[in-house]
Amino acid sequence: MFFLVSPTNISVLSPANIENKIRHLMMVLSAVPDIEIVCTDSSECFDSNKAYLHDRFDDEKNPNVRRLIERDIESLDSMGTEMAAARQFMFVIRKQNQNEKQMFDITNSVTKAISDQGFEVTRMRREDIKRILAIYFEATVFGEHMPDVDGEQFLNKTIRNAL
Fold first, then answer.
1. Separation between Cα atoms, residue 26 and residue 23, nearest integer Å
2. What is the pTM of this model?
3. What residues contact residue 121 under an 8 Å CB cut-off, 6+ apart?
4. Phi and psi (nearest 5°) for 89?
5. Amino acid 105: pLDDT
């Protein structure tokens, strides 16, 4: 089970409030000892694009094209700066061999334990999880369009062609 927790901008909090947030996080970890915390970027990273453009810039002889490449690099830098603090925090619980009622109860108790400590939390749906995995694996920012099973579309196409 994945729970998305809205981040808090601690740069605007006083030291006392930061300590309070840490204490609340410790309370969550005490209440749900098998919880895992995952922090990911909430958007794509453009480092490989910038490296390509820098290489291209070094090889380019045309001054007009070099200016365009410089502008592209500046644009990527600007986007990267805007997204530098864009992080996503997820709490993860691994449960196996639970029936539907048990999973429902566990989900509710974990959500309550997290929200009782002042954190904004939502249970992640399949599309949310796929979107985050798509960003993590640099597949696509449109994770909701990814198949549930990798390669399933090719298997189905092969079966259709065989019929």
1. 5
2. 0.59
3. 3, 4, 5, 6, 91, 111, 114, 115
4. -120, 130
5. 92
